[in-house]
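Renewal narrative, Specific Aim 1. Our central claim is that a sequence can be written position by position from structural information alone. The example that follows is taken directly from our test logs and has not been curated for this report. It begins with the structure tokens describing the chain, in the order in which they were read.
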């Protein structure tokens, strides 16, 4: 081994000592290993074939479809919950919508109960009448608070939107022709909507 190295020196070739040669050899291997990832990256950067490009586009489209499907299912579930909640609230409103009105009438019923007990022993008819009128006025005020109004009929011209003529009689004067002479049954509106027409007698 020494002979070969010395012969190479004699021929003019610069021969490195063995430790330095091994070190250089290690550096070269390290350089080669560093070059390998760059070669891999170069391979990855190579253009895709037509089939690979189509496959990639198909995968992307499938991912978009799955995302949209998930959004649709979420929105569908939210809408279904909203629909059920709305139906429940509507049913409760229909069932208990008159709770406020009924509660406001209860004090009037209490007054009627007290009046009935008073009538059992009362001897003053006038006082009883006044008491009943007070209760009636209180009841009508309660109805007004809930949007109920009496349809006016006295000396009013016949209006079929609010009045129902059940009889026609000769008018006492020329001015009362076509006007209401008497009201047989009172009519009412609820928030300006007719809930019962007034039954009237009209002059002709």
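The sequence written for that structure reads:
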């Amino acid at each position: 081994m020494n002979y070969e190295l010395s012969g190479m020196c004699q021929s003019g070739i610069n021969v490195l000592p063995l430790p330095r040669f091994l070190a250089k050899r290690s550096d070269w291997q390290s350089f080669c290993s560093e070059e390998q990832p760059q070669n891999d990256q170069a391979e990855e950067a190579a253009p895709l074939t037509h089939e690979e490009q189509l496959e990639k586009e198909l995968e992307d489209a499938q991912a978009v479809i799955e995302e949209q499907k998930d959004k649709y299912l979420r929105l569908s579930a939210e809408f279904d919950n909203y629909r059920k909640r709305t139906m429940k609230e509507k049913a409760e409103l229909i069932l208990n919508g008159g709770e406020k009105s009924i509660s406001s009438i209860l004090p009037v019923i209490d007054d009627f109960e007290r009046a009935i007990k008073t009538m059992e022993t009362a001897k003053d008819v006038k006082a009883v009448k006044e008491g009943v009128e007070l209760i009636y006025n209180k009841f009508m005020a309660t109805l007004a608070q809930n949007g109920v109004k009496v349809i006016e009929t006295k000396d009013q011209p016949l209006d079929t939107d609010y009045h129902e003529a059940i009889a026609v009689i000769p008018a006492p004067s020329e001015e009362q022709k076509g006007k209401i002479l008497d009201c047989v049954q009172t009519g009412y509106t609820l928030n300006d909507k007719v809930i019962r027409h007034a039954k009237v007698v009209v002059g002709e």
